[in-house]
Design brief:
With 222 residues, this protein is mainly beta. It has three helices and 19 strands. Helix 2 links the parallel strand 1 and strand 2. The structure holds 2-acetamido-2-deoxy-beta-D-glucopyranose (NAG) (4 copies).
Length: 222
């Protein structure tokens, strides 16, 4: 009897709060792990800093020096966070969140993002991965609302411009129109060709809009 209740509780817990249920770094499977460049380690081996304000956060993410950045608290961002290479951005305490603006991973390599909530991002994606390799997006939650039509917000997690060797695991995507795009334009076919090795593993999608405006396809819903 006891065991049964425990199982039910842990199921309810993980369903309600995927980002709170921190995984283990050894959980990395798929292309983020198995690829010709080497497994994704993020800031492993570098200094570990805990940040609770945008100034410290921006300073900690911007260079290419390996660093583990523990994100503490809710951030209402006024501009996008641009990550350098060799970074782990990890929410602590189950409450770390970004609102209003999101995260750009562009022309870099070896980035891990875990245990964060990325919500209500305007004018751009929650997270954009562009021209980047070895990225692991794990145990995050992405949400906004479906109240304003498909183009009020952009994608939750978009992977574009020949990005490669990426694992997207254990994320909870909900209440949003455009969830996760891989590749964003026919005109970039020659740039994108032979890239976009992306593993989606154990993600959950709920209340995702099923129709975009005519001519805009490609956002994955499952
Ligand atoms: C990332 O870190 C590794 C190991 O310290 C280093 O060799 C590499 O140059 C770094 N990447 C960049 C883009 O600086
Ligand atoms: C994020 O934005 C939503 C919608 O504007 C708001 O309801 C919520 O309180 C905000 N959260 C934070 C942590 O700023
Ligand atoms: C977040 O910042 C934006 C832009 O400065 C502002 O419009 C919005 O009211 C802020 N939201 C909250 C919940 O503070
Ligand atoms: C793509 O990223 C590499 C660094 O990994 C950079 O040298 C190159 O200029 C970037 N290309 C574009 C089109 O941004």
């Amino acid at each position: 009897m006891k065991r049964v209740s425990y199982l039910l509780l842990s199921l309810a817990y993980s369903a309600a709060c995927l980002p709170c249920h921190q995984g283990d770094p050894s959980d990395l499977i798929g292309y983020g792990n198995d690829n010709p460049l080497g497994t994704t380690t993020g800031g492993e081996g570098g200094e570990v800093v805990k940040v609770n304000n945008v100034k410290d956060l921006t300073a900690a993410i911007s260079d290419n020096v390996p660093r583990v950045i523990l994100v503490d608290g809710s951030f209402n961002l006024t501009s996008r966070l641009k990550l350098g290479s060799n970074k782990s951005l990890i929410g602590v305490g189950g409450t770390a969140s970004f609102n209003n603006s999101g995260i750009t991973i562009a022309s870099v390599s070896n980035v891990i993002i875990r245990n964060l909530k990325v919500n209500f991002v305007y004018g751009n994606d929650g997270i954009t991965i562009q021209n980047s390799t070895r990225v692991w997006i794990d145990h995050n939650e992405f949400a906004s609302d479906l109240d304003h039509g498909p183009d009020h917000y952009d994608g939750q997690l978009d992977i574009v411009r020949a990005s490669d060797w990426i694992t997207v695991s254990w994320n909870y995507f909900h209440d949003h129109w455009k969830s996760s795009l891989v590749g964003n334009s026919d005109s970039l076919r020659s740039v994108d060709k032979d890239h976009f090795h992306v593993t989606y593993h154990h993600n959950r999608w709920e209340n995702i809009g099923t129709r975009g405006p005519a001519g805009r396809f490609g956002h994955l819903h499952v």
